[in-house]
Amino acid sequence: MEDIVRAYQKEAIKNAVIFLASERYVKTENLVEENYKKNTELQAKYSTFDDYKNHLQLPNKLFANIDLATGTGKSYVIYGIAQIMLGLDLVDKVLVLCPSLTIEDGLMEKFNGLSGDARLNKSIPTEAKYKNPSIVDANVTVKNGSICVENIHAVYETTGSSIVDSFKGQGERVLVLNDESHHIFNKIAGNTAEANGLKRWKEFLLNPDFNFKYICLLYTSPSPRD
Fold it and tell me: CB 3.0–4.6 Å: which of 110, 118, 147, 178 could bond 75 by disulfide?
């Protein structure tokens, strides 16, 4: 079972990095148009490409959805994508957003463990731009070569957060990885702090002040045994 999990992890990391780094697509609309021209079912559903394109949730971004079953090591996949994109010098910083403090704490713990893993560090090529990224949150300035883990609600705080200072105007060289983010495209009921924060998650990703280019949305789907 462990070998199967590792295979899925590697496949997800490899596919995500190739998509983001290959320069085959400047933005996701390029891939969407390519698929539309080949897919008769899409053509039947949408009379024109523009009609299909208007349904994209994150226009003018190079973004991908990564759907992983429960127990397949999503945290490792997030860290792997971040580490490789930094190592290849495609981005200077990585921002990992999640929906709650509980998930933030869990990611910080796992990422610090991976960052300090001697075997993993030994496998990183010597020519990598950043071999051992710093793991931080938005309570400090996010410097180049860092992976910043933060819950989405803190992004909107004006006190104690370095999000604006660290990322404003730098989005072309920032990778944004969104953990458990499937709900950001859904209508969210309620007026709690959590609900309001989730409603603004998509708004943050599209904010022209940041102009993020590279975006991955990671979901957890139920495993076959669930």
Answer: 110
